[in-house]
Amino acid sequence: MLKRLIFVGILVAFATSDNVVYKDCGSKTGAITTVGVTPCPNEPCLLKKGSNISMAITFTTKEEVTKISTDVYAVLLGKKLPFPNFPYPDGCKDSGLSCPLKSGGTFKYNSTLHVDSDYPAIKVLVWWQLADQNGDIIFCFEVPAEITN
User: Fold this and answer.
1) Burial of 77 (0-12, 13-18, 19+ CB in 10 A)
2) For the chain, what is the total number of helices (H) and then of strands (E)?
């Protein structure tokens, strides 16, 4: 999603809609096919306070994946700040995925994030990654976003 990140703890409600442009930030054991976030009709993605953001990432695997950890960050002033209280850290649960994932397979990862009303209105770069059982990044991408009232 993305809980309070007040400057030194900034929100990271990331969004990418209907296959937005993203930057791969270090995918290793997988490859992203598409990134979609709703709503996000334009870039940067506008994340309205009090709303929910839905996302879907289609990706392929290069190795078998038995465990997935999900990390979400807000990149602000060049610093990567972890998204506090992210409700879905286990990528094998509540994401449309069922581990293990076979090597060479194509999968769709889904998540929903709530943009808390207390988040500051600010421009951020959202960094989203899934790591495997060895800590290797399955996929990682970043998308520009703006938290709005």
Assistant:
1) exposed
2) 0, 9
Amino acid letter at 55? M
pLDDT by 10-residue block (mean), the chain, 149 residues: 29 46 93 92 89 91 96 88 81 94 97 83 92 97 92
Question: What tokens appear for 126 in the block?
Answer: 């959202």
Q: Collect contacts of 80-84 with beta carbons under 8 A, ≥24 apart.
A: 80/127, 81/5, 81/8, 81/9, 81/10, 81/12, 83/2, 83/3, 83/5, 83/11, 83/12, 84/3, 84/4, 84/5, 84/9
User: Which of 34, 32, 30 lies closest to 62, judged by CA?
Assistant: 30
Q: How far is CA 110 from CA 5, 58, 72, 130, in A?
A: 23, 9, 14, 12
**The pTM of the whole model exceeds 0.90:** no
Domains recognised in the chain with CATH numbers: 23-148 (2.60.40.770)
